[in-house]
Amino acid sequence: MKKSLKGWIDARFPLSSFVKNELTDYPTPRNLNYWWNFGFLSGFVLVLQIVTGVFLAMHYKPAADEAFDSIQYIMREVNYGWLIRYIHSTGASAFFAVIFIHMARTLYYGSYRAPRELMWWSGQVLLIMLMATAFMGYLLPWGQMSYWGAQVITSLFGATPLIGEHIVIWLRGDFSVGDATLTRFFSLHYLFPFLICAVVVLHLVALHTVRSSNPSGITLHSRDNIPFHPYFTIKDFYGLGIFLIVFCAFVFFKPDFFIEADNNIPANPLKTPAHIVPEWYFLPFYAILRSIPDKLGGVVAMSMSIIIFAAMPFLDRCRVPGGACYRPLYRVMFYVFITDVLLLGYIGSQPPSATLTTVGEIATFFYFAIFALLPFTSYWENRLLLHREKLPAAALTLIREEKYIPVDQDDKKTDGERA
Amino acid sequence: MKGCSMLLTALPLLAFAAAADASTVPLADVRIAADAGSIRRGAETVVTVCMNCHSLKYIKFRDLLDVGVKRDSLDLWKGDKDLNAALIGSTPAEVARQVYGVVPPDLSLITAAREEGGRYVYSLLTGFYTDDSGNTDNHVFPGITMPDILGYTFASNAKDRHEIENNAGDVAAFLVWAADPDAGVRKKIGIAVIIYLVILTVLLYFWKKRIWKGLDKGGSV
Amino acid sequence: MNNDQPIDDAAELDEGRRDFLEKGTTIFAAAGVAAACWPFIASMNPSRDIEAKAIATVDLSGLAAGKVETVEWQGKPVFVFHRTDEQIEDMHSSQTSLDPQADDKRVIKPEFLVVVGVCTHLGCIPNRNGAKGWLCPCHGSLYDNSGRVIRGPAPTNLAVPPYRYDGEKKIIIGKV
Description:
Number of helices of chain B: 7
Number of strands of chain B: 4
Mean pLDDT of chain B: 85
Strand order of the largest sheet of chain B: 1-2
Distance between the termini of chain C: 71 Å
Oligomer: heterotrimer
Distance between the termini of chain B: 6 Å
Number of domains of chain C: 2
CATH class of the largest domain in chain C: Mainly Beta
Shape of chain B: elongated
Order of helices and strands of chain C: HHEEEHEEEEEEE
Strand order of the largest sheet of chain C: 5-6-7-8
Number of helices of chain C: 3
Order of helices and strands of chain B: HHEHEHHEEHH
Mean pLDDT of chain C: 88
Low-confidence stretches of chain C: none
Largest sheet of chain C: 4 strands, antiparallel
Number of strands of chain C: 10
Largest sheet of chain B: 2 strands, antiparallel
Helix content of chain B: 40-55%
Radius of gyration of chain B: 25 Å
Low-confidence stretches of chain B: 1-22
CATH superfamily of the largest domain in chain B: Cytochrome c-like domain
Shape of chain C: elongated
């Protein structure tokens, strides 16, 4: 009975073949390390946020005079409301943590390079959509930080030449952040995650076209690929177990870690909090924004700091495969960049002071300098490394042929059949 | 290539989330109790004393039964109000604004609205003093218009002061509870969840090892 | 016992251990997933404040004989009817055919009838029909002074909610 049902579906819909080719038998490099778990973790957190978000929306009231009270209602009156709320608020931070590590992996191992540019760019689109979703979601509790964070960030759009003021008012639906802003942010916050799902599908289609990169950066022989199931299904679940332990430790024992104290005060349009801070995942970009004294300049710098990642496939001119694995100079630049971002994050969290502003300006300069230097350093690396011939044979072969080895289309061939 | 797996530095990203405004006001070095007795005593003080001016609009009378308040005490406090009614203060907002210059803030979330809120409330209540001109002021909140409701400035000896400090501690304990009434349940479930996840992760680890052991050592990487 | 036996046993033992690990972990994980679903399902149940309000208190002291008081309980009207001796006697001795039920099974004390004032046909609120009972304005269902259906299209008698007496003069409606 079961067999014929499967057969009945397969005659009308490529279910079995899809599962076989794209999931269970999907060839994956055998040497992937645990940094490759973070794509799966991102997907998991996305689903978690959507599920908790939908259930929260059953009780949340998207109106300025009811929103704050409705969150307290969820926390105190709805069965397990406190749990669903804390999973959602912790999940937002978890999402960014996982995504940043996922990006760092991609940068370190050079997974953004040809032929994976579209994966990198779709990932960038996903990052920007995630930031928008998180920003709009943060307004919904209608606390002091929610309100004033939204007020500050929406006013940034006023830096646009000529039409700036009109854009800000159009965005807000009012002259300052208000009920109109809240209702539209709720509508879009509910919508965006589903758009994110659609772009995730594009991201995965691109992945399955070029297949996963691996820590060496060299496309492996097809015999070094192993089926995704059971090797990487179990590895992903194991990684998920570790993730959930850390995640649940926050949800159950320190849920207020990610909730600003000021956000437990209802929004007051007539009183600005002493210290407006965005959530931690926006801090480096916030620091860059504040580093430039000019309003428009700050907005441009902040936007560029996110968009510049897109240029990575072009900035990196090194013909040595992969990322930091065989390239000590790139490795150093990577670590300098990470340190710089952490420093910027710290600066973003502090109130502005003379010393911090100067340090912030230097850190911002370094941030962009690293990108600007990359074409030159990658070119030098070419000359340095290729000259010394310290690379493995496969890497040298690749370089000499100066084309990437296409993925073996028929992975079922035995060794005897291969040339 | 195992040699290529460079460890990314353990990034103390979380340090930045915690880098909130350090309170410039010195808070009393006291641990706010979380036991039922302290919370119950604090409930009595808050309902009979603080609620003359303050409200706790997210707490209902029936919620107080959860902290061990006796039914007849509760009936006394609520009078003819419904059991499901919220704890609203006796003084109307406008009258309070005229007398004190501000509307006394709602206390439901007061300890969550500040870093170390429990200690803040305790320090505020025991922070009243009489300044040189004979006016009452507060170390934690200079220029406060709230009167010294627990009478700390009138305490003449150590015993009286100690009693008021205990009272303040109970009030803080109650208000910490009021800001997060489900904290107890949350932690209990949390322990069960973490234990479950640790067991599950260990099982998954051995299963992963078993599956990967079957992999031959061939190949170039 | 030949030389193969211990090796076979070892392989079988290994198989058994593998099965236990796989089956055990899967069952353990599935249990966790099921447990994780529960809070979401539970969150859709009525919240604590709605559960708390599922109790209505009725003071009987002001209710004269022959009069009906309507109170709200769980969003529905409940008829509290102080019956006259004549009406009690009438109901006690009469029987209905559509949904037979003895009158004394429908009341705790015969003086007061407590029924949910929602017609069992399609949910309209019946009106008082003089001193004889209730008449539903929507489709003409008729109920007697015990809330029993005399004429349809209603299929069953008016529902009796859970209630109890709190002293002589107070009724508490709802689960307590």
